[in-house]
Amino acid sequence: MKNKKKSEVGARALGRNIRVSATKIRRIVDQIRGCSYGKAPVLPEFMPYKTCYLISQLILSAAANANTNFGLNKSDLFISEAQVENSTYLKRFRPRAQGRGYPIKKPICKVIIKPNSNFVGEIGR
């Protein structure tokens, strides 16, 4: 029963509570979706965004999970699914005039990366 549940879930890497807005991370994730494992960790290194390091670490973690838990060869992997979801907000207050408080919402997001060995990537990538 336990092995059946593991095969349904598949290999994945999950990054929770990343303190960046989802639109900023989607810029990076859209570039790596459908890429091979050899190309996917290298692409974020040449992008000028601060979350590129986190995304490349998630790619490496997803490949290690696929290799360790399912015995998949890393060289055969593709990034079959990459999702970025909005999460809650980190709520802060800024002091304003006459003793009032102004709410500040700092966005938090969640990233899910799933590698697959039999995924056919886009043509031209």
UniProtKB/TrEMBL annotation:
<keyword id="KW-0694">RNA-binding</keyword>
<dbReference type="InterPro" id="IPR047867">
    <property type="entry name" value="Ribosomal_uL22_bac/org-type"/>
</dbReference>
<dbReference type="InterPro" id="IPR005727">
    <property type="entry name" value="Ribosomal_uL22_bac/chlpt-type"/>
</dbReference>
<comment type="similarity">
    <text>Belongs to the universal ribosomal protein uL22 family.</text>
</comment>
<dbReference type="GO" id="GO:0019843">
    <property type="term" value="F:rRNA binding"/>
</dbReference>
<dbReference type="GO" id="GO:0006412">
    <property type="term" value="P:translation"/>
</dbReference>
<dbReference type="GO" id="GO:0015934">
    <property type="term" value="C:large ribosomal subunit"/>
</dbReference>
<dbReference type="Pfam" id="PF00237">
    <property type="entry name" value="Ribosomal_L22"/>
</dbReference>
<keyword id="KW-0150">Chloroplast</keyword>
<protein>
    <recommendedName>
        <fullName>Large ribosomal subunit protein uL22c</fullName>
    </recommendedName>
</protein>
<dbReference type="GO" id="GO:0009507">
    <property type="term" value="C:chloroplast"/>
</dbReference>
<comment type="subunit">
    <text>Part of the 50S ribosomal subunit.</text>
</comment>
<comment type="function">
    <text>The globular domain of the protein is located near the polypeptide exit tunnel on the outside of the subunit, while an extended beta-hairpin is found that lines the wall of the exit tunnel in the center of the 70S ribosome.</text>
</comment>
<keyword id="KW-0687">Ribonucleoprotein</keyword>
<keyword id="KW-0699">rRNA-binding</keyword>
<keyword id="KW-0689">Ribosomal protein</keyword>
<keyword id="KW-0934">Plastid</keyword>
<comment type="function">
    <text>This protein binds specifically to 23S rRNA.</text>
</comment>
<dbReference type="InterPro" id="IPR036394">
    <property type="entry name" value="Ribosomal_uL22_sf"/>
</dbReference>
<dbReference type="InterPro" id="IPR001063">
    <property type="entry name" value="Ribosomal_uL22"/>
</dbReference>
<dbReference type="GO" id="GO:0003735">
    <property type="term" value="F:structural constituent of ribosome"/>
</dbReference>
